[in-house]
């Protein structure tokens, strides 16, 4: 099976593609990109230089809206943009209206919805879902099977352990009142969210705070504090040597 490239698409020098790829109208692919087999790049998508996209990924997909959807609206979305040297795994779905900065790794089977920004150097792990209207900062790590609910913000250097779950609807899908109050998770710079922890709508995790594994967070977490339990309660301050300011990391 040969690939199909729309005549209006612009393919940079040295870019290669496997079998069965479909490149839509007005797509721009940078130089030195590598596409696997059966990759679909929808119309208008902009891909930077030296980007790797593995088999069966879908880039620039339009959102689907159910008749009773609470957070998906009909709208004109800008094209998906994908920065230089990104890596996109097998079966990944990136929606139109997302903006992915350079040097981002999005692992197999992950999904990034519309109206989402992902900062430079961030890792989005296997099977992660980032719902619509989210902001993900620079150099974050979202580990396998974590779920970032719509209307969430993760600032720079946030660590999200495997299986973290977040929510944005205190009404759990009942009554029209809920439409006025959707609010997801806010994790401030350097926050760490432990494996399997759960976040109720609208909570804020303070800068450099740490949530213990398995905790249920029902209220805001103070900066630089370790919390644990169901519901999570302050345990002790984060050790000084673990604070972000003492790691010596340099953004590049």
Explain what the structure shows.
The strands form four sheets. The protein has a twelve-stranded mixed β-sheet with strand order 3-6-9-12-15-18-21-24-27-30-32-33, with no helix packed on it. Strands 2-5-8-11-14-17-20-23-26-29 form a ten-stranded parallel β-sheet, with no helix packed on it. An eight-stranded parallel β-sheet has the order 1-4-7-10-13-16-19-22, with no helix packed on it. It has no helices and 33 strands. By secondary structure, the protein is an all-beta fold. Strand 32 and strand 33 form a beta hairpin. It has a domain at 1-62 and 77-107: UDP N-Acetylglucosamine Acyltransferase, domain 1 (3 Solenoid). The chain has strands spanning 4-5, 10-11, 16-17, 22-23, 28-29, 34-35, 40-41, 46-47, 52-53, 58-61, 81-82, 87-88, 93-95, 99-100, 105-106, 111-112, 116-118, 123-124, 129-130, 134-136, 141-142, 147-148, 153-154, 159-160, 165-166, 186-187, 192-193, 198-199, 204-205, 210-211, 216-217, 225-229, 232-237. It is globular and about 60 Å long.
């Amino acid at each position: 099976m040969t690939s199909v490239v729309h005549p209006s698409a612009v393919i940079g020098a040295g870019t290669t593609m496997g079998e069965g790829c479909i490149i839509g109208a007005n797509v721009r692919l940078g130089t030195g990109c590598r596409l696997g087999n059966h990759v679909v790049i929808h119309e208008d998508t902009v891909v930077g230089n030296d980007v790797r996209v593995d088999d069966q990924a879908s880039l620039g997909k339009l959102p689907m809206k159910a008749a009773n959807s609470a957070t998906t609206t009909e709208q004109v979305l800008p094209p998906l943009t994908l920065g230089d040297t990104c890596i996109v795994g097998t079966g990944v779905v990136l929606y139109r209206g997302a903006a992915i900065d350079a040097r981002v790794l999005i692992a197999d089977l992950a999904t990034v919805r519309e109206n989402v920004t992902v900062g430079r150097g961030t890792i989005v792990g296997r099977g992660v879902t980032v719902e619509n209207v989210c902001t993900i900062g620079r150099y974050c790590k979202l580990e396998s099977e974590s779920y970032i609910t719509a209307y969430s913000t993760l600032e720079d250097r946030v660590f999200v352990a495997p299986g973290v779950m977040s929510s944005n609807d205190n009404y759990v899908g009942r009554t029209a009142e809920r439409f006025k109050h959707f609010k997801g998770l806010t994790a401030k710079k350097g926050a760490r969210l432990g494996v399997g922890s759960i976040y109720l709508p609208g909570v804020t995790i303070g800068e450099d705070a740490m949530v213990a594994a398995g905790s249920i967070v029902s209220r805001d977490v103070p900066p630089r504090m370790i919390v644990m339990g169901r519901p999570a309660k302050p345990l002790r301050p984060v050790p000084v040597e673990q604070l972000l300011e003492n790691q010596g990391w340099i953004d590049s």
